[in-house]
Amino acid sequence: MRFEDEPVPGYPLPILPGHTSPGRFERVLRAGGFAVTTELAPPDSADPEDVYKRARVFDGYVDAINATDGSGANCHMSSLAVCALLTRVGYAPIMQISCRDRNRIAIQGDILGGAAMGVCNMLCLTGDGVQAGDHPQAKPVFDLDCVSLLEIGRTLRDDHHFQSGRKISFAPRVFFGAAENPSALPHDWRAQRLAKKVAAGAQFIQTQYCYDLPLLRAFLGQVEQLGLLGKVYILAGVGPLRSAKTADWMRKNVPGMHVPDAVVDRLRGAQDQAREGRNLCIELIQSIREMRGISGVHVMAYRQEESVAEIVERSGVLQGRSPWYPGRDASQPAQRTAS
Amino acid sequence: MYSVRLWSVRHARGLNAFYRRFEAALLWLHGVFETLGYERIEKPVAGIERAVKGLLFDCRMCGQCVLSSTGMSCPMNCPKTLRNGPCGGVRDNGNCEVRPDMRCVWVEAYRGSERIPGGIAAMSAVQLPVDQRQQGRSSWLRVVREKFSAKSGAA
């Protein structure tokens, strides 16, 4: 899918009727495309080239790139700064905002600042607890939670005022998202929690890793029952597992990570476990894509980011489409033949 | 106390019914409170509230009580003080991501809400962020004052 008026970095696209942001990511979703997003691990460095290097490995395979906000409560370059760097060259970042480190004064400032820097998508998260990261001695803030953060973001955009009621002169034009974890307890209430996020302002959802398809299916069924399917775009979280050992470690140590035994056993039985992990991820994407209520996938491949291109390519979900990246139209044919 | 807190969730229905009657009694006493002066009785009432709710719910005196919408499981005991539902980090055994030996406050809230008539619907309402200025103040008195100012505002 190409847009005729896209994009000169630094120049926003016009906002189409019914859209809330000038971004390409919202356009892909609203046009009914199957969107692919991924996650950029911000560097432990002050060198902008470290950000660009990490973004380039996704060129041509993703519609938007999440910039994590101290994910796992570890200290890295800020998501706002990563996004500002990415928008300079025209990428479509999704700025993650976590409630762990900043109060409502700082967060509202960041929403305005991010939008001013050309960030069109923001993902409102609660954030991992500080105990999970490299600074367990830090003070957890949690002045807001993800739902009240969405509410405040939407108020800034649609009602043009801060939570205090003070007016702003130019509203941030942002497509707001939230996260959900269909695999976490209480299973029966997860869809209703999603409804709450949609009521508060979530327009798209990126889920935690979904390795348990029956759980995802049940979740989507409940989402449909609540009448939410037309109201929010859901991108299912997937990712390659490097080995049975990593999978086992992750499910024990990463908050909210649920990996069924069958998945771990399959990896353990394989000769090349990393390859099997990628194959499994591709199969997951292909099954998830057929599910009603799914608008895309969010491919998280921490420390194996270079595998995202292969996974997306082999899954065939882009159907020959080549999402924009800096220099796409200069160096390559716009359409890639699906392999 | 943790075990009493879990007991309160198991008895959410009864506690909620009791609170409804208690709130009606407080509303009836509005005139008395006003004569005495709300600010004058703030401290002693907050003290009683802290003692009672501290015992039953491990209340943190946020001053904006939502126990009726959270199945009698106090959300301020969540290490992330979430007021709109559980985070994505709930462990497979239903315990907290941050404190592995504690039940997730929201898994408990869901169980408690199932026991209260209309509890699940109440849990689905979006809660605005807490007003930190209310910390340590009486939620009971605030409820009475707000109900009366709403009434007089409507009249």
Task: Indicate the topology.
The complex is a heterodimer of chains A (339) and B (155).
Chain A: H1 24-30, E1 35-40, H2 48-56, E2 64-67, H3 79-88, E3 93-98, H4 104-116, E4 121-125, H5 146-159, E5 175-180, H6 187-200, E6 204-209, H7 213-225, E7 233-238, H8 244-253, H9 261-268, H10 273-289, E8 296-299, H11 307-315, H12 328-331
Parallel strand pairs in A: 1-2, 1-8, 2-3, 3-4, 4-5, 5-6, 6-7, 7-8
Chain B: H1 2-10, H2 12-28, H3 30-36, H4 38-57, H5 105-115, H6 119-123, H7 139-154
Provide an overview of this structure:
The complex is a heterodimer of chains A (339) and B (155). In chain A, strand 6, helix 7 (213-225) and strand 7 (233-238) form a beta-alpha-beta unit. In chain A, helix 5 (146-159) packs parallel to helix 6 (187-200), helix 6 crosses helix 7 (213-225) and helix 9 packs across helix 10. Chain A has helices at 24-30, 48-56, 79-88, 104-116, 146-159, 187-200, 213-225, 244-253, 261-268, 273-289, 307-315, 328-331, and strands spanning 35-40, 64-67, 93-98, 121-125, 175-180, 204-209, 233-238, 296-299. Chain A has one domain (24-331): TIM Barrel (Alpha-Beta Barrel). Helix content of chain A is 38%, strand content 13%. By secondary structure, chain A is an alpha/beta fold. Chain A contains 12 helices and 8 strands. The longest helix of chain A is centred in the C-terminal third of the chain and has 17 residues, at 273-289. Chain A has an 8-stranded parallel β-barrel with strand order 1-2-3-4-5-6-7-8, surrounded by 7 helices. With 155 residues, chain B is an all-alpha fold. The model of chain B has no long low-confidence stretch (mean pLDDT 93). Classes of the chains: A alpha/beta (339), B mainly alpha (155).
